[in-house]
């Protein structure tokens, strides 16, 4: 199983309506391609984890890199892993605005995952995803791991 994590910044004016439209197209495509993952959006920043067949994930990533709806694309991590992390999600999505119960819950979830993953850092994409979720929520995504 191949996994890839990237982050980017949405172009001005790209918001909830456009994200929903994007997801309506992405989910069926990902399902057909056997790609699962998670997309987070917080304060104009995207963080996405993709997993599946390496050729298919890289083909999708090439399409994403050329998408004009975002800028400042940065590949954070990629690699092989023994099994899917988001096996039931064609594309999970969360949009966190402000300081609310969802963000508090996600912060707890992140701390739990990072604690588990620090024991096994041999899974770089999963670790990088959760580490960057933590950075996103702290507001310091500029500092790369």
UniProtKB/TrEMBL annotation:
Superkingdom field: Bacteria
Domain BLUF as annotated: residue spans: 1-92
Any one GO MF annotation of this record: FAD binding
SMART domains: BLUF
SUPFAM superfamilies: Acylphosphatase/BLUF domain-like (SSF54975)
Pfam families per record: BLUF
Classification via InterPro entries: Acylphosphatase-like_dom_sf, BLUF_domain
Name of the protein: BLUF domain-containing protein
Naturally occurring in which organism (per UniProt): Lentiprolixibacter aurantiacus
């Amino acid at each position: 199983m191949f996994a890839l994590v990237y982050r980017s910044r949405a172009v001005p004016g790209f918001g909830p309506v456009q994200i929903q439209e994007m997801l309506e197209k992405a989910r069926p495509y990902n399902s057909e391609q056997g790609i699962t993952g998670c997309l987070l959006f917080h304060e104009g920043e995207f963080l996405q984890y993709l997993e599946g067949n390496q050729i298919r994930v890289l083909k999708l990533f090439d399409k994403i890199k050329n998408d004009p709806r975002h800028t400042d694309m940065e590949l954070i991590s990629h690699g092989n892993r023994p099994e899917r992390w988001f096996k039931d999600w064609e594309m999970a999505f969360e949009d966190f605005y402000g300081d609310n119960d969802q963000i508090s819950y996600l912060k707890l979830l992140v701390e739990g995952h990072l604690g588990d993953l620090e024991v096994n850092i041999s899974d770089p994409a999963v670790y990088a995803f959760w580490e960057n979720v933590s950075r996103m929520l702290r507001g310091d995504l500029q500092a790369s791991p």
